[in-house]
């Protein structure tokens, strides 16, 4: 069939369409964000309805349509979704990851390979269960903001650019601020919190996993506030994320996201 194309992608979200169809939003390896119709997938007789659920990592064949492409074939690449849907914390964390990716990509059909790899890597880390879900989420959000050009300044002053460790963090200014540039309303993260943020941004998991729960809570709040400032509205899924994780001593404790500004 002329015009058919294939790609590998992660299912970001699904919407009902009519009585039996769904609109599937995927983040694909070669074509970026793609919205396509999956016909008849809500029927019990559907051949691939179960494969087109959120977080699914699939190989898809598309037929270009007038407004939306049509999905004609689907094959599962791996079972990453199976490790997410049965655990509330992992499920809500994965939902925040896919919603962030969906919001960050406004243009459909434009390749965003770096973001695709970030999403897939984060979902695989969650499904594996070897890393704390809260740390995985904040690492993803920081790197996704870097992809969008919103990375907070952590090792230099956001206003004057002076390198070094500075005492204050301002969401409005874009990150850490030196004593001369500090503005009213800035927060003062502890050195451990700042070290954790730097570690998460750069993938230093040895430092990240050695952090205490207090530093993780403060990092949660800073990352969430920074993301919300740039997106101009909060993610719907982020307040539902259960901030519960293993401390550096191996104990599991509940956590909350504190206000930072």
From TrEMBL:
GO cellular component assignments: bacterial nucleoid
Record's compositionally biased regions (Basic and acidic residues): 238-250
InterPro entries referenced in this protein's UniProt entry, alphabetically: ARFGAP/RecO, DNA_rep/recomb_RecO_N, NA-bd_OB-fold, RecO, RecO_C
Domain DNA replication/recombination mediator RecO N-terminal: residue ranges: 1-79
Pfam families found in the cross-reference section: RecO_C, RecO_N
Keywords: DNA damage, DNA recombination, DNA repair
Region (Disordered): 238-261
GO process terms (BP): DNA recombination; double-strand break repair
Family: Belongs to the RecO family.
Role according to the record: Involved in DNA repair and RecF pathway recombination.
Name listed for the protein in its UniProt record: DNA repair protein RecO
């Amino acid at each position: 069939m002329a015009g058919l194309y294939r790609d590998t992608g992660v299912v970001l979200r699904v919407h009902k369409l009519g009585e039996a169809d769904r609109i599937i939003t995927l983040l694909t390896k070669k074509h970026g964000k793609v919205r396509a119709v999956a016909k008849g997938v809500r029927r019990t007789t559907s051949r691939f309805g179960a494969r087109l659920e959120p977080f699914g990592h699939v190989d898809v064949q598309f037929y270009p349509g007038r407004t939306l492409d049509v999905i004609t074939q689907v094959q599962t690449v791996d079972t990453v979704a199976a490790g997410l849907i049965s655990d509330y914390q992992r499920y809500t964390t994965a939902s925040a990851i896919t919603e962030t990716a969906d919001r960050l990509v406004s243009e459909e059909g434009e390749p965003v390979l770096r973001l695709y790899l970030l999403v897939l890597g984060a979902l695989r880390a969650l499904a594996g269960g070897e890393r704390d879900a809260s740390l995985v989420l904040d690492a993803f959000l920081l790197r996704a903001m870097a992809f969008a050009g919103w990375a907070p300044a952590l090792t230099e002053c956001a206003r004057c650019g002076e390198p070094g460790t500075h005492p204050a963090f301002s969401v409005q200014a874009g990150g850490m601020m030196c004593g001369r540039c500090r503005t009213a309303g800035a927060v003062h993260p502890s050195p451990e919190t700042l070290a954790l943020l730097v570690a998460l941004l750069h993938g230093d998991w040895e430092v990240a996993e050695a952090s205490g729960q207090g530093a993780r809570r403060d990092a949660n709040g800073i990352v969430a506030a920074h993301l919300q400032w740039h997106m101009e509205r909060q993610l719907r899924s982020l307040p539902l994320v259960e901030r519960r994780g293993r401390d550096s001593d191996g104990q599991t404790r509940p956590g909350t996201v504190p206000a930072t500004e």
